[in-house]
Each structure stands twice: as structure tokens, then as C-alpha cells.
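HUMAN: You are asked to prepare a plain-text protein record giving the amino acid sequence and the C-alpha cells, both parts labelled.

ASSISTANT:
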Amino acid sequence: MLNVQRPSSTFNFQSIYLVAAKIDMVDLNHIFLFIAVISPLLVLARAWRPGETHRGWRIAALVVLATTAASWVVFRQQAGYIGGSVWFALLFVPAIGLRKVTELAAQDRYRSARKLATALQILHPSAELREQVAFFRVLESRQNDENAVSPSPIQRGMRQQDRHRHLWKAPAVLVFILLNIAVFLFEISFGDWTDPRTLRQLGALEPYAVVVQGEYWRLFTALFLHAGSAHLFFNVLALYVLGPPLERSIGALRFAACYLISGFGSSGGVVLLTMFGLVHATQLVGASGCVMGIVGAWAGFLLRHHHVPRARQRLANVAMIVVIQVAFDLSTPQVSMAAHLCGLITGFFAGLAIAPKKIPLRQPARIVQ
């Protein structure tokens, strides 16, 4: 969650308005700077092994770090945007693209996989990617030979159904993403969404209003409000990346329950901590408490089902996400660490409690001879 208002001895709406009006721009530069430093370091930590397999990733990570460092020295005010742009081109796009290549290959769409891999070579010219392109070319040739005989209408229908199911495999995630976007559009139409007074009218979380005035509905409405387009974008992106795998593992209803319970736990935890004087939150908005709850639910699910494939590796990834988030919270005063940790803890216990007792193990991937 984003702490829109920072407590001060002299409460001045005009000064708060000026701070809130700059949050979107300042946070975006700060976020990109953080990503442009942390992400390449993580890539180097994982890819720094002997051999040529990860050489392309090592070079790309070093280029991002060098560019970010040079930008920090020469253009400090724009260092985040410059480093973030290079990170986006050399690390983010290739990673997402290679993930899509894998999905296309799993669907036997070798021609599309080859074309995408060929395009990715512009940003990621590695020997590994060149080998994949050559391999897909061979598979495409075999597939063309097999398809010399026209597939039956039943086979064509099954392929179309598979693609359709692939698009709608995480309905709960899709609903929450669309709901967050719709609420933000309503914020824009309602008034100045950078004004804390507007957020208050729409239902931002204010511990004083919840405890003293009994406005408990703010515990829920604040989860769908955002203090800017950048705030919304990164929350939606995190939900899009982290949500679908968990939803496919536990089901849409359980996922929705984890999401909402984590959000309530995040909001309620901040209110309780504020009552005891442990934190000083004046006004909070955002879905990041729910998103961190999904991270916690992943941890609870994997601990309960430690027999699933790559459970330890996934738990390590969850721990890494938590460490990165804590580091980001410590370096960003506008962010509420309390809301994130409360959502994380609530999601963890929710994941333990409502995760299915038994889950079907995935079939091993088919190996093309």
C-alpha cells in the first residue's frame, strides 16, 4: 500500500496535495532505479556459473548495471528512467519473450516459437538462443511433413479449444485486474485522483476514521484505490505475474478468498498497529497488501505441499521476493511496510488453511525425439 499522507505536526492539505501530485513521477523514477540495480544483481547471482550457457544474461546484466551507474553520475535525476529503459530492453523483454517461446513450443506451435526467438536475438544474441532457433526450425520442418495430410476437423477444434482455455486459465486474476483498472478509471472521472481529499471520499484507509468514526468499509474499499498510474501498473503487473500459477494450483475460489482475506488482514493490521502507536499511517491506498498476501499464500501452499515439483526452488523464489520487497520498502518512505508485512503474514496462514489437501501432480513434459 502507498502511504499518501505523511504525518506532520501541522496538517496542511495544500502541502499534502503537492506531495501527492509528485508521488507518481518520483516513485516511477525511484522504482526503475531500484529495479535497474537489484534485478541485474539477481541475474548475475543466478547466471554466474562456468560455461557459455548463461553468458548472454551475464553480459546483459553488466550492461544494465554499467548504464545505470553512469546515469547516476551524469544524469542523477533521470537515472531511474535511463537504467530502467535499458533493463526493460535487455532483461525484461527477453525474459518474457523466452517464456512465451516456451509456451508456444509446448503448444506445438514451432513456427511461431522460431519467429519469436529469432526476433529476440536482436536484444539477446546468445549462443543458447541461436541453438533454440535452429532446433525449432527442425521441429517446424518435421511438423510440416506430418501436416502434409490435412488434420481432421476434430483435431482443429481441439487446438482451438486449447488456445481458448489458455487465455482464460486464471479468471479470478483477470477479474481482480479488471476491477482495479475500472476503479482507477472511476477515480479519474470522480475528480483529481492526486488529491487526498478525493481519495478520502472514495474510501481510502484512514485508521482514525475506522476506529473513531466506525467507517469499517474503508478496510475493503482502500484495496482497490491507487494513488497514480504507476502505482496501479506495478500492482497489476505483480498480480499478473504471481497470480495465475497459484490460481491454477488452488482454484479460482480459493485464490479469490486468499486475495481478499490478505487485503483485509493488511488493512486491519495497519489499523491495529496505528492504534498501538507502532506505525503512523494517515491515509493508505493500494492493492499491494493483497499482492503480498498472494506471495504469502504461495509460501503456505508450498510448505503444505512440499512434494510438488520444484517446491524448494519456488520457496526460495518467494523468500527472494520478500527480501526485495522489504529492501524496497526501507528505501521508499511513501510505501507502507506494515501493510505489506501484514498482508504477507495473513496470506501465509490463508494459504496454509485453505489450500487443497491433495493436488494432482502435473504430467511430465513431452520430450520430442
Notes: The chain has two domains: 14-145, 169-355. The two ends are 50 Å apart (CA to CA).
